[in-house]
Amino acid sequence: MNNNGRLLLIAGAWLILWLRPLRIALEGDMAVHMTVQVPLLIGLGLLLAVSIRGQEPHWLAEADWLGIPGIILVIFGTSFWMLPRALDSAVADPWFDAIKFLSLPLLVGLPLGLSWRRMPPLGRAFIWANFIPKLGAIGGLYLAAPTRLCAYYRLDQQATAGWTLIVIAVALGTLWFIAAFVGWPPQHAAARPPSRDTGSKPGPPLLALPPPYASSR
Amino acid sequence: MTIQAVQTRGGISARAAVLAYVVVCGLVLLLMMVFGLLMRLTQAQWIDIQPDLFYVIMTMHGAGMVGIAGLCGATVMWYFVRRHVPVTTGIFVANLVFFLIGALLILGSGFIGGFGAAWTFLFPLPAHSGDLWSANAAAAYMFGLLFIGVGFLLLHLDIARGILSVYGGLGAALGVKQAFGLAPESEGPPPAVAASTMALIVNILGILLGAAVLVITLVNLYVPSFAFNALAAKNMIFFFGHVFINATIYMAVIAVYEILPVYTHRAWKTNQAFYLAWVLSTVFVLIVYPHHLLMDFAMPTWALVLGQVVSWLSGLPVLLVTAFGALTNVYRSGIKWNTAAGLVFVGAAGWAIGVIPAIADGTIEVNSFMHNTQWVPGHFHTYLLLGTIAMFLGFLTHITPRSNNAWAPTGFWLYVVGGSIFVLAFLTAGAASVPRRYAVHLPSWLPYDRVGSIGAALVVVGVLILVVRFLVSVTSAAPEEAGA
After folding, report:
1. Residue A192 and residue A190: Cα distance in Å, rounded?
2. Per-residue pLDDT averaged across A202-214, rounded?
3. What is the pLDDT of residues B387-443, one digit of tens each?
4. With the C-alpha atoms ordered B422, B427, B428, B433, is the resulting torsion angle positive or negative?
5. Does residue A180 sit at the B interface (CB-CB below 8 Å)?
6. Is residue A196 part of a domain?
7. Which of A182, A184, A200 sits opposite B83 (nearest CB)?
C-alpha cells in the first residue's frame, strides 16, 4: 500500500470510529472503551507515523533525543486517558470526546511510532517493564475501589474493566517473556565464550578487572 | 563502534564502579550487622532498647540486609558476566545511585518517621500504625523499595540486552538445549552467563509484581477505602521477597564458579546436569513461594501443597551441582588454601547446610510448629550469612590487593566461627520454641540470646577486619598505581 492509500485508510478508519452508533457501542462499556477504542485510536497514530516517517523534519528527529521526549509525551497522554474522570467526560461531552479522538492518534500514537525506533533496546525494555505492571496495578485498584470511579459506568462494569486490564497485563507479560526466552538470531553468536571459561585471575596490584566482552573475539 | 568505545566515551570506569560497589556493600553490610547485633543484645537483656525502636531496627535490618545482599550479588554477577557479554557501566552505576537513594529513604522512614512494620510491609499494616508512624513515613519506605527495584530492573534489563545480543534468547543463555541433550555440552554458556540469566529472569518477574503491590499499598496509605484483597497482596509481597532474596544467592554463587577454579587451577565443569539444574531451579524458585504462606488458612490447599512439595526440590538442583562441583573441583587439586578460596568454599557449604532446616520448615506439619519461632531466622541466616555473604566476602578478598594478608585469616575464622555460633543459637532456640520477632524475651530464653549475641559480635569483628583490610589495601595501593 502506498502512502496516500495508507493516509486514506487512516482517515476512513478514524471517521468510522467517530460514527455515532459505533462510538456509542464502544464507549458503552468501560472495558471496551479502555481496551478496544483507546488502543484503536493509538493504532491509527502508529499507522500515521509509518506514513510520515520519511517526511519527518530533521530538527524534530534531532530534538527527540533517544526518543525520550516523545515517549514522555506518550506516557502523559496515556496516563490522562486512564483517569476515570477523563473517560467520564468523553462519554458525557462530544467535544471532550473529539479531543480524545484527536489527542490519542496525534499525541500518543504518532509520537510512539516516531520515538520508539529511536529509543535504545534498554529504554524499550524499561518502558515495557513499567507498562505491564502499571496495567495490572490499575486493574487491581479498579477492583479495590469501594465506589464507582466513573459516573457513567456501573460497579460491575468497573470490575470487568479491572479484570480485563489484569488479564491483558498477564498476557503481555507472558508474551514478552516467551519472546525473550525463545529469542532471535544473535548479533554476535560467533563471539560466544566457551562453556568452561571460568577462573579469572586475581588482580595485582589493585582490583584488576578481567577483560570485558569484546565482540571481535 | 565497539562497546569499549562507548564505555570510554561515557567516562565511567568499570573498575571505579566495581570499587564503589564493594565499598558500599562492605560498609552497609557492617551497619546492618550492627543493627542485628543490637537486636540480639536487646533480647539478651544486655542493653535496653525500647520495643518501638526495636521494631524500627528490625525493619531496617530486614529490608537493608535483603537490599545489600542483592547489591553484593549484583557486584559479583556484573564483575564476571561482563567478560562474556556486553554490558553498560553507566547502568551499573545507575543501579548503585538508585540503591543509595532508596536506602536513604528507607532509613529516614524508620529512624525519622518511626516506620516499623517489618520488611514485609504486609498489607494493610502500613496504613494502620496505631500512631507509631505517619502515612508519609510508610510512603517513604515504599518509595525507597521502589527506587531500589527500579535500579535492579535497569541492571537486569541491561544484562539481558547483552545476553540476547550474544545468545539470541534467554533459553540459549540458560543452556536449555544442553539441559535436555539437544545440543553439545561444550556449546553451552559459561556458568556466569547461565546463573546471570536465571537471576534476571526470576528477579525481573519478582520486581514487577513487587512494584505493583507497592503502588497499590501507596494508594491505600492515602485513600484507605481502596482496600485491595489482603491475601492477594501477601502473595505478591512474598513472591517478590522470596524471588529477590533467592536471586541474591544465585548471583553470588558465580563467585564459587569463578574464584575457586583460580586456586584449584581447574576450570569449573559444566555438563548436562549443570544446565538441567539451572533450568529446574529457575522454574522452582518462581513457584515455591507459597511455602511462606503455610500458616494462611485462607490459601487454596493446592497452593500450599505445591509450596511444600516444591520446597523439597527447589534449591536442590543448583545446590547439588554447586556443592558437588565445588568438592570435585577441590578434590586432589593441590589447592593452596587462602582466605578467598576458603570463603567461597564456606559459602557453598553454608548454602548447602542452610537448605536442610529450610526444607524442614517448608513441610506443612513442621511449619505449623516452627513458623513463628527462631528456627526461621536460623535457617535463612545460615544460607544468607554463611552462604551469600561468605561468597561476597570471598569475592572481596579475591580482588583485594595481595600486599596485605596478615589479618585475613583472623577475619576469616572470627567470621566462620562466630557465624556458626550465631546461626546455631537461632536454630536451637527455634527448636525450643523461642518465638521470633519479639523485642522482649522471657528469662528462660536468655541463654540462647546471649550465645547468639556473642556469635553476632564475632561476626561483626570478622567482617570489620575483612572490610577494613580491603579499604586500607585499596587506599594504600592507589598511589602506587598512580605512580606506576
Report:
1. 6
2. 54
3. 999 999 999 999 887 655 678 999 999 999 999 999 999 999 999 999 999 999 999
4. positive
5. yes
6. no
7. A200
Chain A: give the shortest CA distance to residue B357, in Å.
Answer: 32
Please tell me if residue B179 touches chain A, with a CB cutoff of 8 Å: no
Count how many pairs of residues, chain A against chain B, have C-beta atoms within 8 Å: 205
Environment class of A62 (CB within 10 Å of its CB; exposed 0-12, middle 13-18, buried 19+): exposed
Q: What is the pLDDT of residues A104-118, one digit of tens each?
A: 999 999 999 999 999
Q: Is A128 on the interface with B (CB under 8 A)?
A: no
Instruction: Say if residues B74 and B13 touch (Cβ distance below 8 Å).
Output: no
pTM of this prediction? 0.90
What distance in Å separates residue B121's CA from the closest CA in chain A? Answer: 17
* The pLDDT value given to residue B323: 86
pLDDT at A212: 65
Please determine, for residue A179, whether its predicted confidence score (pLDDT) is greater than 70: yes
Residue A4 contacts B, CB cutoff 8 Å: no
Are A213 and B166 within 8 A, CB to CB? Answer: yes
Task: With CB atoms and an 8 Å threshold, state whether B91 touches A122.
Answer: yes
Length of chain B: 484
Please report whether residue A199 resides in a domain.
Answer: no
Q: A196 vs B399: CB contact, 8 Å cut-off?
A: no
Taking alpha carbons only, the member of B168, B175, B169, B117 closest to residue B141 is B117
Minimal CA separation from A131 to chain B, in Å: 10
- Residue B435: helix, strand or coil by DSSP? strand
Q: What is the ipTM of this complex?
A: 0.80
Q: What are phi and psi of B188, to 5 degrees?
A: -75, 165
**Residue B145 in 3-state DSSP?**
helix
Q: Is B336 on the interface with A (CB under 8 A)?
A: no
Segments in chain B below pLDDT 50: 1-9, 483-484
Give how many domains chain A has, as a whole number. Answer: 1
A187 falls within a domain:
no
Let me know if residue A211 belongs to a domain.
Answer: no
pLDDT at B5: 34
The full set of domains in chain B, from first to last, is 3-477 (1.20.210.10)
The residue count for chain A: 217
Q: Which residues of B touch A200 (CB under 8 A)?
A: 80, 83, 258, 262
Per-residue pLDDT, averaged over A79-91, amounts to 90
Q: What is the rounded radius of gyration, in angstroms, for the C-alpha atoms of chain A?
A: 23
Q: How confident is the model at residue B146, as a pLDDT?
A: 96
- Whether B157 sits inside 8 A of A125 (CB atoms) is yes
Domain span holding position A99: 3-182
Distance CA(B405)–CA(B5), nearest Å, equals 36
Best A195, A197, A201, A213 residue to mutate vs chain B (most B CBs within 10 Å): A195
In this predicted structure, the answer to whether residue A205 has a pLDDT above a threshold of 50 is no
Which pLDDT score is estimated for A210? 65
